[in-house]
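User: Can you predict the 3D structure for this chain?
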Amino acid sequence: MSYAGKPPTYYPPGDPPIVFFDGVCGLCNRSVDFLMRHDRTGQLHFSTLQGTTAGRMLPVFYTEDLDSVVLYQEGELYHRSDAILRAMKYLGGGCRIFAMCMLLIPSPLRDLGYRLIARYRYPWFGMRDVCRIPTEEERRRFLP
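Assistant: Here is the predicted structure, written as C-alpha cells:
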C-alpha cells in the first residue's frame, strides 16, 4: 500500500529506490546491513529519517514519528511492512520469493507484527547515541 499521493518533491522516474530508516535504532541499522549485504547489484540507496534527504522528500509525519521504515520507489512511498518487503524484492533469490509470498498477506495483518516490533525495538535491539555514519565503501549508497 502506498502513501496517498506523490512525495512533496518531484523526482523523475528512474531514480534509485531509497530506504529511509531510524538512524539511531539498532534493529533498523542491522536491517540496513542485511539489505546492503544481499543487494548484490547495489540498487538500493539509504537515508536516515533524521537526514536532510528525508526532510526534503517525505511528509513531515514520517520524519517526526520514527516508528516506520519508508521506501521511496518509482515516485511512490511505502511504509511499515510494505517498505521492508518491497525492499527485499531487490535482493533476489529466496529473499525475493519470501517477500512476494508475504506481500500476499493483507497489510493490516502484517502491520500488526510490524507495530509490535517497532514499539519495543529500542529495548530489544538497542539504540545508538548518533545516526549511522557510513563506511567509505557504503558512502555511494547513502544520502545525507
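The beta strands are 18-21, 45-48, 70-73, 76-79. Residues 85 and 114 are 11 Å apart (CA to CA).
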